[in-house]
Amino acid sequence: MFGTGPLPYPCLWPRPEDSTIAAQLMPQGEKFLVFAPIANWEPKEWPMAHYIALARTLLTGAYAGYRPVLICAPHERPRAQAFITALAEYQLLDLSLGAHHLLTIYACMQRAAGFVGNDSGLMHMAAASGIPTLGLFGPTPHEVYQPCGPKAAYMVAPEMDLGKLTPTMVAEALTSLLSS
């Protein structure tokens, strides 16, 4: 419109204290995958059982040895309880307790190998962090809300029904994104 080139990707700047806390939570040498299974509107949420199946597939397969990271708001934590319980054996890092500033969460994302989550603000933060980010879309328009970033991708559920997006489909897409 104004004759300029492409717009830059979104970016955030964590404060030094955010980066320090992130380094303590997610030490160098450990590998992490971030999961954001909750959204502000439940129809935008991929089924929790699918998230659990995806995480187990990844953490017992190509990403064995990685630690899962859960990110959601404290008031959303009860909806994520099944994920917390199911993945405790993988040394789940639970960042859903509200103890950390959003910029600290962002600094944690920067230390992760990748992210998978629903159409949400956390998905956009992950994309802005520059890590491989896979957003899952159902009833919301991906044309408007897709993640933007150098390593961002998205999947649209068949018939806009997130229940029809299988863990196998998502695992294949995420594995491809993480290996590129």
What does this protein structure show overall?
Helices cover 38% and strands 14% of the residues. The protein is built from 7 helices and 6 strands; from the N terminus they run αβαβαβαβαβαβα. It has a 6-stranded parallel beta sheet, sandwiched between helices. α5 links the parallel β4 and β5. It is globular and about 50 Å long. The relative contact order is 0.19. The mean pLDDT is 96.
Spell out the key features of this protein.
alpha/beta, 38% helix, six-stranded parallel sheet, globular
Give the secondary structure arrangement, pairings included:
Elements: H1 16-25, E1 32-36, H2 48-60, E2 67-70, H3 77-86, E3 93-94, H4 102-110, E4 114-118, H5 121-129, E5 133-137, H6 142-145, E6 152-156, H7 167-179
Parallel strand pairs: 1-2, 1-4, 2-3, 4-5, 5-6
Helix pairs in contact: 1-4, 2-3, 2-7
Q: What count of helical segments does DSSP give?
A: 7
Largest sheet: 6 strands, parallel
Strand content: 5-15%
Q: Write down the Rg.
A: 16 Å
In the predicted model, the low-confidence regions spanning at least 5 consecutive residues are: none
Pattern of helices and strands: HEHEHEHEHEHEH
Helical percentage = 25-40%
**Quick one: how many beta strands?**
6
Q: Helix- and strand-based class?
A: alpha/beta
Tell me the strand order in the biggest sheet: 3-2-1-4-5-6
Globally, the shape reads globular
Distance between the termini: 32 Å
